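Below is a filled-in request sheet from our internal design queue. Each sheet records the structural input a requester submitted and the sequence that came back. We keep these sheets so that new team members can see what a complete request looks like end to end.

REQUESTER: design group, bay 2
PRIORITY: normal
MODE: inverse folding
CHAIN LENGTH: 386
BACKBONE (tokenized):
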């Protein structure tokens, strides 16, 4: 019995040794005998070449518009802060007055923009490039260009840049001015937090948002497509890839997206673009009045039937309104035959008037309605931010 057990042990040892030699020198001999797959699976065919869009996908719209959305890198010269001890009066007492300014350093910023013309014109936000002395534009295909500022409009927070390229530039298609309705699907494209080009999807939550305190002229598209810092100046496109707005602001308490973003409509962007390219600036009408909302209490005190119109709270001396005879306390109810419903409407109507043109202003003074002719002036340019 013992002899049989020794023979069995030797046979097992020889077999294991043989398998070890085979697995080391000829592993393919063992693999050929293994099963092809342990689990039955279904594998999709290779997608080399163009892949058809999936149902409900917005890939076509994104691919059509993404090449025209650029990354904007800005820089400006600045002074590094000095050591905090230099502000300490005790330190200054013992060591004397010393300048508390560090070495000059460059401060950088980032944002997005949209190529809107084969000539290289780019629309972005004014606050992206407002204080920059150097601007660089990076395309999605890796090309980089130095950009120059053509003009800006702080009152709508828009600016126009230009790059020069020997090659062909991708250009976005502008949608019709009245193309959007609440509930439409939109895509926000930009460079959030500098991570690279990103596409987010949402719907149009509201149109004509104003009185947000962001800019002088406000007529925003509200969307729940995620917009974050770095998206400013990027594209808001419809489900066909056409530009419907320029992403400009978010409502946030944390600095991140909370599903309330605002974009400047393409109609305003187009108007600003055309004026800046033609003249280098945006020209608007101005009459020199201070206006305010008519509250129910004010309407009752002035004997008004409703709160429509704009109350003239002040008139600038020697302004077009002053020369025409408009007085504080007047209620402006029409400009050039167009009804004034609120101060924002009045501001938009006056701004649209060409400077030098005579326009009819209908005001209510007491119980009378008076028609006055005003020679429209030119709206002063806001002072640049420091």
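RETURNED SEQUENCE:
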């Amino acid at each position: 019995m013992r002899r049989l057990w020794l023979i069995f042990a030797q046979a097992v040892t020889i077999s294991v040794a043989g398998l070890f030699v085979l697995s080391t020198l000829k592993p393919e001999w063992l693999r050929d005998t293994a099963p092809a797959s342990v689990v039955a699976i279904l594998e999709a065919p290779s997608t080399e070449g163009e892949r058809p869009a999936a149902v409900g996908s917005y890939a076509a719209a994104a691919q059509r518009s993404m090449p025209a959305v650029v990354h904007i890198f800005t820089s400006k010269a600045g002074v590094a802060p000095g050591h905090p001890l230099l502000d300490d009066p005790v330190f200054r007492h013992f060591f004397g007055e010393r300048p508390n300014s560090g070495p000059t350093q460059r401060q950088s910023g980032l944002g997005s923009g949209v190529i809107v013309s084969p000539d290289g014109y780019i629309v972005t936000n004014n606050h992206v490039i407002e204080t920059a002395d150097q601007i660089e534009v990076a395309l999605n295909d890796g090309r980089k260009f130095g950009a120059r500022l053509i003009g800006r409009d702080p009152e709508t927070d828009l600016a126009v840049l230009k790059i020069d390229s020997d090659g062909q530039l991708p250009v976005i298609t502008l949608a019709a001015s009245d193309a959007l309705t609440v509930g439409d699907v939109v895509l926000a494209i930009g460079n959030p937090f500098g991570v690279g080009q990103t596409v987010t999807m949402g719907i149009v939550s509201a149109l004509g948002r104003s009185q947000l305190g962001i800019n002088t002229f406000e007529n925003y598209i509200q969307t729940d497509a995620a917009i974050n810092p770095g998206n400013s100046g990027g594209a808001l496109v419809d489900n066909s890839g056409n530009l419907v707005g320029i992403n400009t602001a978010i409502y946030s308490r944390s600095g991140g997206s909370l599903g309330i973003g605002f974009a400047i409509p393409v109609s305003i962007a187009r108007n600003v673009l055309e004026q800046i390219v033609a003249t280098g600036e945006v020209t608007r009408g101005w009459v020199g009045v201070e206006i305010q909302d008519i509250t129910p209490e004010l309407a009752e005190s002035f004997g008004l039937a409703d709160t429509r119109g704009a109350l003239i709270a002040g008139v600038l001396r020697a302004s077009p309104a002053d020369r025409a005879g408009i007085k504080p306390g007047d209620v402006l109810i029409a400009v050039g035959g167009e009804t004034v419903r609120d101060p924002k409407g009045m501001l938009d109507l006056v701004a649209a008037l060409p400077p030098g043109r005579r326009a009819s202003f209908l005001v209510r003074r007491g119980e009378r309605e008076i028609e006055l002719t005003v020679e429209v002036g030119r709206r002063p340019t806001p002072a640049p931010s420091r």
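SHEET NOTES:
- Residues 285-378 form a domain with the Pdz3 Domain fold (CATH 2.30.42.10).
- The CA atoms of residues 94 and 301 lie 66 Å apart.
FILED BY: M.R.
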